[in-house]
């Protein structure tokens, strides 16, 4: 969900509100339900000029919007919202979690103290925690932080900062591991794409099918097409067709082969099928293409 382009995104002082910072602390902690139920569980698109949010959702769902993108997520997860990031939340009514809000002086201090782990506060992101080693310790730290925040006690500020630092170190570990997994996934995808292009070069004139080529790579045709779309911007079938068309144009331009001979060279059983294929992709027949080149 995003705001209308004709309406400015509001800049709030606190989570969903326009009133000023409510306490002398540089940190504010409350349950998600405390404030979101006042807004029918829907916090509309807004941003903060000088605040950073860290949300921990132990249970329940949230429809999370960052800038123009929205997705439905389930707890347990951690969400980081840096300053000036347009964001919105629509929580399920059974949501169980907390939101920790940091004023920018504290956020900058932590970013410097915990460098490089503190850089997690500068990236708008969400981190699923199910089946992750950080799940239980993060939940414990958030509960301890909330309890300490609600009562004045000796050394309160120091303990709050220590709990927050521990929380962000664990979050950074989760983020680093997720990024490493994405990098490995990207590298595997690039290797598959390179091998697929080699297979196209070796077999395009035999009219191979995408399932056959995917099987040679040891992956599904759907996975192959997803890799091609993500890394090359076209489907696997489009990449194969592009190579066939390139060779067809070369033969039509630089040789005296008949249309039927070109079709046979490229693995088409019938010249008429080659003509339909060529016209569908080039918007003219092979004969017309050859005349234009001449």
TrEMBL record:
Keywords carried by this UniProt record: Activator, DNA-binding, Transcription, Transcription regulation
InterPro entries per the UniProt record, alphabetical: AraC-bd, Cupin_HpaA-like_N, Homeodomain-like_sf, HTH-like, HTH_AraC, RmlC-like_jellyroll, Tscrpt_reg_AraC-type_HTH
Protein name (database record): AraC family of transcriptional regulator
Leader peptide range in chain numbering: none
PANTHER family for the chain: ARAC-FAMILY TRANSCRIPTIONAL REGULATOR, TRANSCRIPTIONAL REGULATORY PROTEIN
UniProt-listed SUPFAM superfamilies: Homeodomain-like, Regulatory protein AraC
PROSITE patterns found in the cross-reference section: HTH_ARAC_FAMILY_2
HTH araC/xylS-type domain location: 194-292
